[in-house]
Amino acid sequence: MIPDLGTIALGFAFGTAVYAALAAWYGHRTDQPRWVESARNATIITLPLVALACFLLIISLLRSDFSIEYVWRVSSRGMPDYLKVTALWGGQAGSLLFWNFLLAVFTAAAMMRNWRRQRELMAYAIMVASFTQIFFLGLSLFIENPFNRLAFVSPDGNGLNPLLRHPGMIIHPPMLYLGFVGFTIPYAFGMAALMSGKLDDTWIRLTRRWTLVAWLFLSLGLILGGRWAYDVLGWGGYWAWDPVENASLMPWLAGTAFLHSVMIQEKRDMFKMWNMFLIVLTFCLVISGTFIVRSGVISSVHSFAQSAIGPLFFGFIAIMFVFSVYWLSKRHEALKSENHLNSFLSREAAFLYNNFLILAILAVVFLFTYYPIFSELITGEKGFVGPPVYEQATGPLFGALVLLMGVAPMTMWYRTSAQRIGMGVRWPALAALIFIGVLIVLGIRDWRALLGLWIVSFAAILTLLEFWKGTRGRMKAKGEPPWTAFATLMGRNRRRYGGYWIHMGVIVMAFGIISMELFQEQTQIRLTVGDTLSLGRYEMQFLGASRFPGPDDLLITQATVDVYDNGRYVGQFYPRTELYTRTNQPMTIPDARSTISEDFYMLMINWEPTSSNQATFRVYLNPLVNWVWAGGIIFVIGTLIAAWPDRKEELVTVSRPHQTVLAGGD
Amino acid sequence: MKERLRITDYGLCFTFCGLLLTLLFLTAGVAMAQTGEVTDDEVNAVAKDLFCPVCESTPLDVCPTKACADWRELIRTQLAEGKTRAEIHDYFARQYGDGVLADPPKRGFSLILWALPVIGVAIGGVLFVRYVRNLRREGDAAATAVVPTTLSPASAASVLQPIVPLEASGDYVSRVEEELLARK
Amino acid sequence: MTDTMKVSEIESTELAPAVETTAKRGVRWTAVAMWAVALGVLALLGWGLIQANAPRPEVGEVAPPFTVEFFTGYEWQGQPSVALEDLRGKVVVLNFWASWCVECRYEADVLENASRQYAPDEVVFLGVAYADVEPNSLAYMQEFGVSYPHAPDLGTRISNSYEITGVPETFVIGPDGKIVYVHIGPINQTTLNRVIAQAMEGGS
Q1: Shared-domain flag, residues B132 and B183
Q2: Dihedral pair phi/psi, residue A542, rounded to 5°
Q3: How far is residue B145's CA from residue B158's CA, in Å, rounded to a whole number?
Q4: Is residue C59 in a domain?
């Protein structure tokens, strides 16, 4: 009954999406706005229908209805209810349905919010967004229907993949999906601008917030994914340059380039073609990333099992690629904006340098990620590129990017004199150099670390100075107390200072990443009960271990250890291994003494209760790893500041499309 | 004039700091001692950059499977025999294919992993610089061509405004203040 | 503000003809580059998809060729190595195993017994060790008293070309060089006898 209803809801949703695309096309072609309006209503109706399907699947999961194949595959009776709900995105079919739901949310929201503003673009935007929706709904309905029945009756299900039973994993996929799906909106409006020939920056202004929101979710997804890896995967790190991780990093990079370069178009009406290209690139990376994750083209720990959606998905990508490039090249002439620079040292030039560096990183990551396919094609052997190669290649580029990030806010539109920049940077450069001197005195000798930390601290000082200069300016001009001045400054220039806030987040993360890359220490040793090991200033005593059943099919082996920091007792910790007995899948769950300066991260990798009272431990000293998370939080707050809806600002931008003169930032 | 003198001061300062850095580098000497027993740490240091085909995308040093444990034992044996990290990596590549190396060997097709980024960024950089210079030239052309001919004197002044006065004033604070006042 | 706005509008219209000539040349080049990249990436993805979905060597297909070098102490007709082509006219039982694999232990004796049961010039048994370290392989073979030839899979090439899903896995190849039977997991005596008989009939 419920599964039938679910399939019917999906069927109707598919129908409304098809109707929306056709009605928009017909209405536009025959110039009947009523049809376009009807199409828009259809996109909005799609949402409750897909939501109903999701709801029905969740109900089935909660009721452990194992007559449904998907429910049987990803859940089991013993699972807690919250995991049953999140099992909605624990497998291919369910996550596709969830993806559809998010896409419907974004489309409906964009249609409702932007409806009054740009009618010319709407018909095309509906067509593009609906086409995407049709494709994904088609997959859900015909290929990977989550409501498919099982041929046999099973008393219990398989249970959720152990890797996905962690709190971090509960919110990480939805965030990534939101980010991925979110880019459909700016892409749809960009394509609408191309198809309608209305090539001014209307589409950019319409979708600026949507882009920022999509980008925010993608960033959150990346950060949470890192946190999840750190907490669950048990290898002491947060980023492994895994193809699936790269698949979400690449659209993020392209989106970052886009967010920067649109500002040139908004301010100076230049690089129209380039911006259009970047949003198309972002969307293409989103769908090809989804493709490689879901079709098993490049295998990875995270990827879904091989499935039948591959060929269809490939067809979709091919259509989207060809469609995008066709319109890009068709409108190339019309998009030809008269681009020119007044100086190499100007805000617009700085954005170009930023774009160059980001795209270079993107190209490198792309090459390495797709290298296995490439190599198999040419040599017949599947090659492999490990983290060291990625780090060598992207490290210098990231360094240059952070350096630029520090200096660029000092440039102004049109031109800035070298003298002014020189005056602006010399004190911070010197201060950063003194900081490095202190580090050398403290015993740091690695030149990569010193260079990296110099760049990062230099950029940090410059970014903080931006806040300081703005605040001081207000204090002087308005006589406001510092905090009021700071708050008003942020409030009034959300986009600019939100951006600097994001930069600050990146800088804090960079401190953490450099330290983790170059100064992580680790040791592995077998201990008998009562023995201690030491690493850095920490000492860990092994007190014993026990084995007991956990919830569901879990068998937990937990060690108890005392940790001493410089001889001072700081507490008892419980690194453990978990065995999911149904699938026989082991997991090593760390425990960590976590402080602002470092994590003492403990793993128990082996316990031999019968042969001896020994256990093998692997401990890491992860310097400044909490800075990575703290930087992530700052980053997200900054994005929220920049993306927060602001009625006044929107009116301002709409009435003054080309703010040219004094606004140095934004 | 005064400005130039001050810059020289900083130059001196920079030089001094540079000398200081060099000195510290030179005094830093780290020596590694070799001991008899092969520890887990030494094994892991070699295993870190190997990936066994049984567990894809998981480095050998943290992979929990029995196959990987066997591989690590082999590394231990080879280390005890006095083989170097490079020799062991070579052995594994020969035995199990180049796909086990995190750092692919710099020969044959995998050379593109180094060549393409370097050449790509270099060519991209040259094209980019040429493009930007071209933009710059057009910028000059635009500034000289458009402003005097097509505009009224008043608007011409406003075009030049961002170029000239900001250069001259050079005071960030006043600029921010002005802007903030303008936004009021 | 309004003045400057006008300016940029004027700029963009007035200057357009001047840039036109350089623009035209750029157009075609950029468009070609975009098409090339898009189609290239599509081709790569498509090829990857075909590769990923490629069916593993199936019954009835010609078995992928390979050459193996046996572990020390093993030989086939006095040779330290053998190529699959040299075994045409004979039934080949190709078994993938590893010392770390628990299930392989269930079938080790089965295979050994079977190898003794058939005449060596009619049915050739070949063991290929997958992702296994040599000392452990040797110890395993000694433990089970394996007499038929065994070889390491150098470069993991054979396992890749047969696209094995894991170990143990057994391929029975007929005298004509075509695959007669694929078995995933430990094989038992009855099945083995049945398929070998089938392979010998099919070939003659």
Answers
A1: no
A2: -85, 115
A3: 16
A4: no
pLDDT tens, position by position, A199-224: 888 888 888 888 999 999 999 999 99
Q: Which of C14, C98, C133 sits opposite B146 (nearest CB)?
A: C14
- 3-state SS of A582-634 is CCCEEEEECEEEECCCEEEEEEEEEEECCCCCEEEEEEEEEECHHHHHHHHHH
CATH number at C199 reads 3.40.30.10
Q: Residue B132: count other Cβ atoms within 10 Å of its Cβ.
A: 16
User: Are A656 and C1 an interchain contact pair (Cβ–Cβ within 8 Å)?
Assistant: yes
Say how far apart CA A3 and CA A67 lie, in whole Å: 9
Residue C126 and residue C40 share a domain: no
Q: Residues 6 or more apart from A237 whose CB is under 8 A from it?
A: A229, A230, A516, A520
Query: Which of C11, C30, C34 is the best residue to mutate to test the A interface, defined by the most A CB atoms within 10 Å of its own CB?
Result: C34
- The verdict on C42 and C105 lying in the same domain is no
Q: Collect all residues with Cβ–Cβ distance below 8 Å to A16 and sequence separation of at least 6.
A: A42, A43, A45, A46, A49
| Site from C133, C136, C138 to mutate, B interface, most B CB atoms within 10 angstroms | C133
Chain A hits for B102, CB-CB cut-off 8 Å, are 384-389
Q: Is residue A240 within 8 Å of A300, Cβ to Cβ?
A: no
Bridge-based pairing of strands C91-97 and C123-129 is: parallel
Within chain A, which residues score under 50 in pLDDT?
300-303, 649-666
Q: Compute the distance between CA of residue A532 and CA of residue A564 in angstroms, rounded to an integer.
A: 10
Q: How far is C29 from chain A (nearest CA, A)?
A: 10
- Shortest CA distance from C137: residue in chain B: B70
Chain C residues in contact with A328 (beta carbon < 8 A): 31, 34
Q: Which residues in chain C touch residue A314, judged by CB atoms under 8 angstroms apart? A: 45-46, 49
The better pLDDT of the pair C171, A647 is held by C171
Assess contact for A560 and A543: CB atoms under 8 A: yes
Looking at residue A534, what is its pLDDT? 92
Measured between CB atoms, does C121 come within 8 Å of chain B? Answer: no
Query: Are residues C31 and C98 both part of a single domain?
Result: no
Q: Is A522 helix (H, G, I), strand (E, B) or coil?
A: strand
> Across the interface, do B121 and A360 touch by the CB < 8 Å criterion?
yes
Q: Are B150 and C135 inside 8 Å of each other by CB?
A: no
| Residue C162, domain extent | 67-203
**Which of B65, B95, B150 lies nearest to residue C14, judging by beta carbons?**
B150
Amino acid identity, position A122: M
**How high does pLDDT run on average in chain C?**
81
Domain that holds residue B146: 106-150
Say if the Cβ atoms of C45 and A661 lie within 8 Å. Answer: no
Which region holds residue B12: left if phi is over 0, alpha if psi is between -120 and 50, else beta?
alpha
Euclidean distance between CA atoms A87 and A352, whole angstroms = 43
Burial class of residue C7 in the structure, from the number of CB atoms within 10 Å of its CB (0-12 exposed, 13-18 middle, 19+ buried): buried
Residues of C in contact with B54 (CB under 8 A): 131
ipTM above 0.85, yes or no: no
C60 within a domain of the structure (yes/no) = no
Give pLDDT, residue C25: 52
The domain total for chain B is 3
Domain check: are C25 and C114 in the same one? Answer: no
Residue B81, burial from CB neighbour count under 10 angstroms (0-12, 13-18, 19+): exposed
**Which of A338, A342, A580 to substitute to test the interface with B, most B CBs within 10 Å?**
A342
Residue C20 and residue C77 in one domain: no
User: What is the distance between the alpha carbons of residues A469 and A410, in angstroms, rounded to a whole number?
Assistant: 11
- For the record, the structure tokens of A353 come out as 């340098």
Q: How confident is the model at residue C27 (pLDDT cuts 50, 70, 90)?
A: low
Sign (positive/negative) of CA torsion B38, B40, B41, B47?
A: positive
From residue C68, alpha-carbon distances to A511, A651, B141, C151, C164 in Å are 51, 75, 71, 6, 17
